Each structure stands twice: as structure tokens, then as C-alpha cells.
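Page 37, top half.
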Amino acid sequence: MKASCISMLAAGMLALFTGLPAQAAYPERPVKVVVAFTAGGTTDKLTRSTSEKLGQALKQSFIVENRPGAGGNIGTEYVVRSDPDGYTLIVDSVGPIAVNPSLMKLDYDPLTDLVPIVQIATVPNVLVVPPNLPVKTFEDFLKYAKSKKGLNYGSTGVGTSSHLSSHLLMQHIDAQDATHVPYKGADALNDLMSGRLDFMFATAPSVMGQIRAGKLRALAVSTQQRLASLPDVPTVAEKGFKDFDSGSWFGFFAPKDTPADVIATINKGVNDALPTLKADMLNEGAIAVGGTPEDFGKFTHIEYEKWKKIVEKLDTKAQ
């Protein structure tokens, strides 16, 4: 009798559990991927190409949404405040994650309020000038910058590596009166090509087309190594500024408390996609990275400490 009751109870429990609907695999609906800068810039380009591959692999739409402003803080905070369900992600960069916490007063901490998923790429900045500027080489530019008062330089926003690369170089050559003109994103390039700006450090993918078309002149690269897609362009470091190293990077993040299985799914999807994107990225000046969430998390903290020291040393203000 006792055994019979146990068997009946077991059968009832089995029927109960088998009657429950199976949990749908992520993602079961479209995923929003926020870009904290304007369309057409490097963050936007890398996000769209990677999101397209993710969508193909995961059989779901990954919809890119641009939310520019405040050096990337507007889009970043939007994602920080979003539900941690895996359906709102962000591809963010060095400025909003590693620079702005030291440069500005924020109502959130991107290093703790966002979960790193995977790094997409590292990207050098390229010092570019309009063709009508009377300089042909980096040495010419240094002489020009030291002699000319009231230089104007653009950036993709306060606190971005684009901004700080220029600021750092102007500090090095004592061109203190150079004026920074921040833009929400890639719009700075239009003013640069028209001659309203004198120079800019721009992420390589955002200016590769203009360089090849002769609309901008590349004078130097901001990282320690030359760029394979611009092999004849020297680095700032090899021209006498040995510690100059000011590149950018990009990667996927999610709101804090996003489920671990979602993080794992996006991480695997991006790592699987990068080999198919690597050649195109390299041609445009980006270097594919990939790796684990733990790798990316350690990297972002190292970058934060690096840029914190630079910001403090230069006494850079958010302006």
C-alpha cells in the first residue's frame, strides 16, 4: 500500500512537471544594442557588423539604436538603468567606460553597473588634417602647431580617446591655447574636411575612406605599433614621444545582474563571429580581439587605472 502511494505521488509530480511549458532559449525576441555615439562612427560600424553576425547565428534580430551625447554618457546610463534581461545591450568604448569616471561626476559607475561580455576590437587613433593645411609630415605639423595661435581640434566627445589624444599631444608640445571642439560623434569629420578644424585624432575606421580618397591626410598613429592598413604612417611614439599610447577599444556590455547564460550566449556568438570579420576589420584599421568576459573585465579595470593617471596628470577638465 505504501509503495503504491509513493508510485502514485511520483506519477502525479511527473505529470505536473511535464505539463509546464519549456523555457524559451535566449533570445526569443529582438535584442536592442545601444551605441552611445552617432551613426557612421567607429563604434556604430563595429556594432552593426557584429550585430548582423550575431543575428544570423542566434536566429534573432539585433537592432542597433544610437543614443549619442555627453561623451557617451547618455547612451551608457540608459543601458545601466535598463532591465537586466539580456534584451538591452551596449557596445561601448574606452571613453564612457574607462575615462569618464575620472573626468566627470557620474550618477553611476560603468565598471560595476555594467557587466563586460566580450571585447570586439582595439583601434588606433590617427592624427589627420585637411589637405589644405600646409603640412605634409608629422614634423611639419609640430612646427605648425607650435607657431600658430588658436588651433582648433575636434573630437567625438569629451573624455573620448580622440579628445585626450589631442590634449595629450598639445600638452607635450606646449600648445596650451589649442581649443577643443567636442562633437556628439562622427560629425566632427565634416568640419575637419571643410577646414573649420585644424586637426583631429580620429579612430582609424572612421577616416580610412577619407584618407584613401585624399580628403584627409594621415600624419601619425597614436598607438605604439604602426597600423597594418597604413604601414607608411609613423607612430607618435617613434617620433620622439616614446610613452605616447592612446588607442581606443570597443566591446559588448550588459546591465548588472543580467543572467550568466545570456552573457555566455553573447560571448560565444561574438567570438564565433570575429574570425569572419577579422580581415575586413583589419583593412579598415581595427584589430579583432575576442576572449572571455573575465578577460574583458580585467582589461577594463586596467584601462581605467591607466586613464585615471593620465587625467590626473594633465588636470584635464570636462569642457
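Page 37, bottom half:
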Amino acid sequence: MNRFIYQININFKRIILRNKRFFLFDMMLPIVFYLLYSKVLVTGIPQTDLKTWQMNYLISMIIYSCLLGSIITVANTLLEDKTSHFDILSQLTPLPRWQYYLSRILIFLLLNLISSIGICLVGIFVNNLTLSITTWSLIILITIIGTVPLIFIGILISLANNPATVNMLNNLLVFPLAMISGLWWPITMMPKWLQSIGKLTPTFELSNIDQSILHGKIIDNQYVLGIILWLVAIGTTTLLITKYQKYKELDIE
């Protein structure tokens, strides 16, 4: 257990404390979007509806920040571990391989927690949004749990083992996913066929769960089941590909 905690401590320092890209990209980009669409580009929104819009868009930017951190940061970090041979160093420790990934998943969840709290503070201090501590905490907690399937997507992308391929997959997945799931603008603005696709995404399902908590509504079990199915599907695929790559390496040797 002490070795596992030591590994978590090392990963915390190198992935979060020394990772300037996290603060500049995963946090600042969603904050800029939030300030732009909740404070500047609000012409035409009635004053009575402005607070609701600011709160709803805050939820979207929290999830968008976690989307960036869970896929792009995860994929790039794990790829850097491989290119710098840090993963080989980890393999030489007495810890089993699953703890290598578990220690990183915990750090990535912490990274998402930090970004979520940061964006919430912007909403509180800039737009004077007021919610009970229980509601704020529940929204953040559910969001962090709901990002686990996204983290597995990031792990899956990192298995491409090629920087160009990983960057291409990140761009092909993250930004279209943010658009069609309604994080950048309401999903109702898109064509019906695109709405049908967007409603199947984990980010749309997570957004609806958070919106239900925000407005005191009953959470639709359909969205909870959807996230669970995403987790099982992506987790199983990642496990199978990891085992296949390991078998292939052993076969080559």
C-alpha cells in the first residue's frame, strides 16, 4: 500500500503540479467560453432567464473541461509515459500493472475535480450564482464519477502508441463530441438526425443528470444506464486491446 501511495504522490506532482498545459488548456479554455457566452454574448436573453442560462452553461463547461482532461490529457500523458519509457520504469516496480493504471485514473479524477471546482468558483464570483453546498457538491461528485468512461476513452486512444495518430484521434473525437452533445450550444439547434446521435453520447447523458440535480428534478435512469453501458463497453474494449498488444509483444520476442 505504501508503494501505491508513493506512486500516486509522484503522479500527482508530474501530472498536475508540473503540468502547465492542464491549467492553460483544460481549465482556461472552458472558463473563457463560459465568460464569453454567459457574460458577453447574452444579447437577446431576457433578464429573467439570464441566471438560468448562466447556470445551465456552467454545467456544460464543467463537463467540457472534464472532457478535455479525461481524453486529451489522459491520452497525451500515457503516450508520453511510453515515449519517455516511464511506463517501463513502472513495470520494474513490485506493483501489478493494474495499479499502474489505477494510480493514474485516481490522479485524472483529481484533475477533473480541480477543474470542476475552479469553474464553479468562476460562476459564483463572476455571475453571483447561488446554490446550496449540497447541490454544488452533488453536481461535482456526479460529474467526476461520470467522467470515468471518458478516461477509459483517453486510455484507449493512448494505445495507438503514435503521437500523430493520438493527436488526430483526440481532435476527431473531443471537439465533435462537445458540439453534438450540446455542450457548446443547445442540442435543439442541430438537425434531428444529429440530435439523435448526440443524445447517445456519454457527455449528453451526464449533462442531463447534472441538469436534473441542478433543477431539483428526478434523474432519468435511462441516462444513468447509458453511462454504465459506455463504461462497460469502453472498459472491456480497452482491456481486450491491452491484452492483445501484450500478447503481440510477447509473440515478437
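Margin note: Residues 2-252 form one domain.
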